[in-house]
Please model this.
Amino acid sequence: MSADTPAPRPTPTLAQLLDAIRFLTILPVPDSARAPEPDWLTRAMTFFPIVGVGIGVISATVLVLGSSLFGPGLAALLAVAASVMVTGALHEDGLADTFDSFGGGWSVERRLEIMKDSRLGTYGGLALGLDVALRATALAQLPLWAALAALVACHAGARATPGFVKRRLTYAGNIDGMKVAYAEEPMRKDETALVLVTVALAALPLLLISPVALIAGLGCGAALAALMTAWAKRLLGGYTGDVLGAIEQMFEIGFLLGVAAVLAA
Model:
């Protein structure tokens, strides 16, 4: 290929996968040379569970290394810390902002104002501490192989939640009239099918270890995610980006607690 021949543009599928990696993680990926479509983030959500598998593998690798050097408690905390670092605390930030907003706001406008404030409040700080503590403690209760399988399934399943929430709720953050990419139309049926297939494949190792643990994890994760969704609908009338992050974290917490309830060593 000559120097003045333009590089081939990535296929739409590859472009959306790169968008998902770029949005969800701090991992270096090639910059996009194309103009972003209005619904680029909705399309990228199709690949969120695939990126979740990668995050789960990174976290699981740290868990294996930590287990060989430290006890299960510290190894679990390091595994959780690894997922926080590779995502740039994206979802944790949403969790903290959401709890600050819901705990300190007395109207929809005030809650949205608090949600946009970069400062961390008491409610958000408590939510973050409990979030990390619950995930790490639940993970530390599991046998190593079960913990590795649970991490991959957990991160894939949690990152499927934004697409489904968008099908149930409307965007609530545009009181200033501004639209955002993830407020466009929901995922198509073929995209939803890819999400479900990805989560199913990611959950297969845990299914082979314990079908009951997988069912408990999915059930508890979905229950906590549904509670956060209902809370957002009641207090905001819909979702925001921070709310989607909070729902993702609630699924992670519920999933790991459910698996630990069945397989705790």
The chain has one domain: 12-17+39-263.
